[in-house]
RNA sequence: UGGGGCGUAGGUCAACUGGCAGACCGCCUGACUGUUAAUCAGGAAGUUGAUGGUUCGAGUCCAUCCGCCCCAGCCA
């Protein structure tokens, strides 16, 4: 016997053989002298069949100790069985209880409220639905690495502990020896720019932190962001990279995670339309469109959630909103030579109301203009000395963007809230488990 | 941080203008040789989020506090 303990997903290769499955009990049903236990091992489920007349009495007796989530080794003959969940079953000949599970295991195959499920997230992870979500998240993460690797990008890991630098909004801080406060990174971008000057094309993939008191379906205080930065790319090149990138991630899930998308009851028709080119609309045009459709937005305002949904509903695939007013965006974005009130940037809005999944821009590469913008924003110039130096010693046109991993996964999975696509979500009111 | 909503058994929820604390699921006991969220019979299970008030009487009305959900803002 080459593999006496195969994974459940591989059982079709072991039909007729006696093997041992190692896993957890997800369901028990008894019918007098025949009893059924469904076993999960993380790769699939299999039904174990206990027949009283064909078992030693002590094995039969042990069946009634199988509570929900008991961990077991079950030995038996593999049979193809269309009636069984998982389409295979095990004619049990042996049972070893590895870890008993008290009867008060909290999660039932029934409906629960979100607060209860999040309190029990360490158990909730064991459900089918969660497994499907994380298979898709994993596919997307792998696709991200494959996409950039194939294009010769270097992955670099930027610091999580930083001096105050980056975005304006809320920072988590902690004491840092004699250096005063350290802050959890909100972005790796500025470091990515330094790396782009060294390596050409780079991307970062790491956790980022925002101490904003936002309580919406689209915000976490800790989330994962992918930030490419490319030397010699202007804003137009940047958007072409974004649409190729996003389209590739969607395509990979459609190709390789169809079963999981089905498990989540995701309508894949809108995903199949996600192909380059994405629609492009200038901020100024967007404001005019929105005003015609009844929005109260005026030039200079950022787009609200309602405005985004209204705008995206016009199109059948993601939309780039380009060149926002300077005041609405970060200091490092390059002024638009065609309209100096605006900067060369883009937000990529996902369809179906999922909103902004990418924010990107061409960076200001002129030393004096960048210094002027830092002062205008009232930022501490000395903290940005090294960043300014990138413009002083061999400045270069460059662009990049940040893709929010959880927003992207939630969109592709078709889930209403991003808290479901990260294993242990961190939100304003949740630090445990 | 604003606006709205909610808090009752382990879970999901009922309980009319204030009048005996309920159902289903789960759990326990028993029956059943092919169950699919098995079925059938029986049983245990409650400081109604907390404190105070009004009342003959409060899950229900009032005040304060605590917790959560949704929407908005900020953003990815």
Give the key terms.
433 residues; alpha+beta; OB fold (Dihydrolipoamide Acetyltransferase, E2P); BirA Bifunctional Protein, domain 2; 2 domains; eight-stranded mixed beta sheet; five-stranded mixed beta barrel; 29% helix; RNA-binding
How are the SSEs ordered, and which strands pair?
Elements lengths: L17 E14 L2 E7 L4 E7 L5 H6 L8 E10 L7 E12 L14 H6 L1 H4 L3 H23 L3 E2 L5 E2 L10 E3 L5 E4 L4 H11 L1 E9 L12 E10 L3 H22 L1 H6 L5 H4 L6 E4 H10 L12 H8 L6 E4 L22 E6 L4 E8 L4 H10 L8 H8 L5 E7 H9 L20
Parallel strand pairs: 3-5, 6-10, 12-13
Antiparallel strand pairs: 1-2, 1-4, 2-3, 4-5, 7-9, 8-9, 10-11, 11-16, 13-14, 14-15, 15-16
Helix pairs in contact: 4-6, 4-13
This protein binds one RNA strand of 76 nucleotides through strand 1, strand 2, strand 3, helix 2 and strand 11.
Could you provide a short overview of the structure?
This protein has 433 residues and is α+β, with helices and mostly antiparallel strands. It is built from 13 helices and 16 strands.
- Shape label: elongated
Distance between the termini: 42 Å
In CATH's first tier, which class of the largest domain applies?
Answer: Alpha Beta
Radius of gyration: 27 Å
Report the portion of residues in β strands: 25-35%
**Strand and helix order:** EEEHEEHHHEEEEHEEHHHEHHEEEHHEH
């Amino acid at each position: 016997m080459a593999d006496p303990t195969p994974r459940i997903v591989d059982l079709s290769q072991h039909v007729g053989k006696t093997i041992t499955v190692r896993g957890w009990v997800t369901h028990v049903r008894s019918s007098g002298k025949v009893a059924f236990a469904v076993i999960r091992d993380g790769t699939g489920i299999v039904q174990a069949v206990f027949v009283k007349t064909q078992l030693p009495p002590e094995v039969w007796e042990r069946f009634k100790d199988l509570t929900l989530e008991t961990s077991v080794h079950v030995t038996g003959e593999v049979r193809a069985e269309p009636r069984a969940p998982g389409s295979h079953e095990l004619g049990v000949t042996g049972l070893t209880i590895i870890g008993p599970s008290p009867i008060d295991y909290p999660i039932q195959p029934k409906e629960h409220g979100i607060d209860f499920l999040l309190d029990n997230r360490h158990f909730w992870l064991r459900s089918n639905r969660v497994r499907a979500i994380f298979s898709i998240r994993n596919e997307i993460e792998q696709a991200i690495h494959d996409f950039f690797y194939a294009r010769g990008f270097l992955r670099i890991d930027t610091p999580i502990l930083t001096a105050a630098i980056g975005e304006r909004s809320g920072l988590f801080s902690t004491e840092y020896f004699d250096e005063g406060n350290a802050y959890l990174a909100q972005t790796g971008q500025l470091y990515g720019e330094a790396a782009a000057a060294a390596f050409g094309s780079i991307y970062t993939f790491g956790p980022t932190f925002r101490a904003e008191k936002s309580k919406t379906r689209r915000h976490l205080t800790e989330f994962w962001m992918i930030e490419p930065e490319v030397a010699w790319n202007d804003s137009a090149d940047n958007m072409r990279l974004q649409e190729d990138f996003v389209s590739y991630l969607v395509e990979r899930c459609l190709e390789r995670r169809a079963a999981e998308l089905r498990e989540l009851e995701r309508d894949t028709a809108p995903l199949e339309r996600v192909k380059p080119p994405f629609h492009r609309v200038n901020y100024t045009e967007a404001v005019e469109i929105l005003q015609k459709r009844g929005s109260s937005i005026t030039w200079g305002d950022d787009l609200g959630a309602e405005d985004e949904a209204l705008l995206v509903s016009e199109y059948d695939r993601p939309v780039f909103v380009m060149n926002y007013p300077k005041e609405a965006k970060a200091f490092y974005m390059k002024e638009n030579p065609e309209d100096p009130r605006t900067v060369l940037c883009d937000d990529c809005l996902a369809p179906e109301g999922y909103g902004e999944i990418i924010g990107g821009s061409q960076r200001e590469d002129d030393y004096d203009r960048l210094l002027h913008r830092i002062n205008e924003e009232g930022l501490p110039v000395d903290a940005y000395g090294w960043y300014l130096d990138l413009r002083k010693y061999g400045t270069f046109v460059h662009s990049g963007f940040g893709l929010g991993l959880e927003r992207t996964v939630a969109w592709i999975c078709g889930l209403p809230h991003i808290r479901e696509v990260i294993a242990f979500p961190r939100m304003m009111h949740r630090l445990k488990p």
